[in-house]
Write a structure and sequence with these properties.
The protein is 75% helix and 0% strand. With 89 residues, the protein is mostly helical.
Amino acid sequence: MDNRLEQEQNRELDQAFAAVLKRLRSTNGLGQEELAFQTGLHRTYISQMERGLKSPSLSTIYKLSSVLGISMEQMMALVEKEVGNVSSR
């Protein structure tokens, strides 16, 4: 795979995850600091994920989805849907 294509796909996935995370956090009435506290993650890491600057590990996705009241599968389905929105921007 072309390196530029791979980088673009990674960027789209990070942006899609960012949008889903921010939407779910807001829907649950949580600030970044409260989400960080409940997941045991640092607030700046939450912020970086919400801006598409960091890619979460599976264990991080598990922690986030658990606190946000959604399964990992449901969260990834939302990300998959969001990828189409990100790539059309």
